[in-house]
UniProtKB/TrEMBL annotation:
Keyword tags: Endonuclease, Hydrolase, Nuclease
Tagged with keyword Nuclease: yes
Domain of life the protein comes from: Bacteria
Taxonomic path: Bacteria, Pseudomonadati, Pseudomonadota, Alphaproteobacteria, Rhodobacterales
Any one GO molecular-function label of the UniProt entry: endonuclease activity
Name the UniProt record assigns to this protein: HNH endonuclease
Stored PANTHER family: HNH DOMAIN-CONTAINING PROTEIN (PTHR37827:SF1), TUDOR DOMAIN-CONTAINING PROTEIN (PTHR37827)
Keyword Nuclease attributed: yes
Amino acid sequence: MSEDAPDPICPLCGRPIPPGVPQSLHHLIPKLKGGKGGPTVLMHQICHNEVHATLTEAELARDYATPEALRTHPRLAKFAAWVAKRPPGFHSRSPGPRRKR
């Protein structure tokens, strides 16, 4: 990536993802539900954790397989509005365990 290229934007919170901040790729269709090798989006790690703490793999595959759909989920919309006020490198533990598969 060139030095002039803008930082990627997180599709959940809309904040930039600068190099060096906790980040990960989210499979829009979970790998366990046939999404291996399918489309992915780069997200802040905290946003990715919240997606998986909120939704099951089945829910992700069935109803939330696009960034737009993720943003419509009430808990994720509330989280995105909250975290959008934090700096791009902000990270904390997500409440609760990862949802069951």
